[in-house]
User: Fold this.
Amino acid sequence: MAQLRNPDTGCAWDIKQDFNSLIPYTIEEAYEVADAIERNDFDDLRGELGDLLLQVVFHARIAEERGLFDFEQVAAAIAEKLVKRHPHVFAGIRYETDEQRQQAWEEAKAVERRQKNAGQTPESVLAGVAASLPALVQCEKIQNRAASHGFDWPEVEPVFAKVREELQEVHEAWQSGNQPHIQEEIGDLLLVTVNLARHLKVNPEIALKQATKKFTRRFNHIEHQVENAGRTLRDCQLAELDSLWNEAKRLEKPSA
Assistant:
């Protein structure tokens, strides 16, 4: 990377990159790692992890050129953080439950934030969750942070009730015809749905990805059946398409 960034003999594209210009590539490589894992393509995963590592090296090299930090300091920092956040591994601390371990993890992160902001106005316990995260991931992280400080339902049943309440409010907003209000209520419904997923120990981002893949599979079945009949989707009535959808669902069920 140092050679690629050499202003005299390096690559013109690599030389002109900076932290901001690399953001989309870094995000893209992380998603490609996730995609390889979901496809169980471990040969591809090896390559994608290398591509992701390249982004870390790239950012570290730019930082080194600016006198900020270097790759060794990046590696040392994460090693130090891992030791601090795992006292049950490195310091003989014992946790009886996963909840205790998670609480200790959040407390360790809170200590790090306080140390980082020493002498400044105390920040919100919700500070530090990246605004650029996908909306579902950001929502889950913020709710987890709030829950770790006691702002959460102790049982799951009230969350089901809240989902029903928010759904009713969406319906009422739709009846009003007020589009900004409809959008607001849809947002509230999505937020409480993420909360329900948390309480049911489901990752909402993964759940939605899987549901979208399932929708795509079933829709592809509809397309193939319609195409085999020499027709197009627009030639079909909704009831016919819905029947093909139900057929796709039946085909997915394992035989007895």
